[in-house]
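Structure tokens please, single chain.
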Amino acid sequence: MIEYLFTFPVYIENIGINKSFVNRLKKIKLKKFEFNLNNYSIDEESIACKELNNFLQEIAEKIKLDSFKITKTWLQKYNKNNFHDCHTHDPANFSFIYYLDCTKNSSDTLFYNPLYPYYHFNQYRVKPEKGKCIVFSGAIPHAVLPNKDDKRLILSGNVNFYNE
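Here you go.
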């Protein structure tokens, strides 16, 4: 008998906040989209890499790969009642969410099982906290619930892990 086990890891760590980094990102003028304020493809990969380096390197070692490269980043600000529908990212990559600003009223990120919406059996909610970073397989469906404040600010992106 052959058994295949498909797993999709989610790594969560509070890596802290560099206030000057956050203040720099808060100065970026964001474009208004239907559900939130976004500035896609901001040119901050090298800066994000510096902020997330230790956490991403720890994950690379855990999954037995040598290195990583952040391939894309974007900033999202959620005002009251803003949300982000259920979506996935490139399933070949990992993605991250780095909470830069939020309050106890900021909306949770909701992760669904990889078979959602065809088979709905498990959800995992992550409560935003300043400095918390989540790294997860791009194949995992996730959403942001309607926000209850005007403070939720995140830096998100995609990252590839590889052997050199």
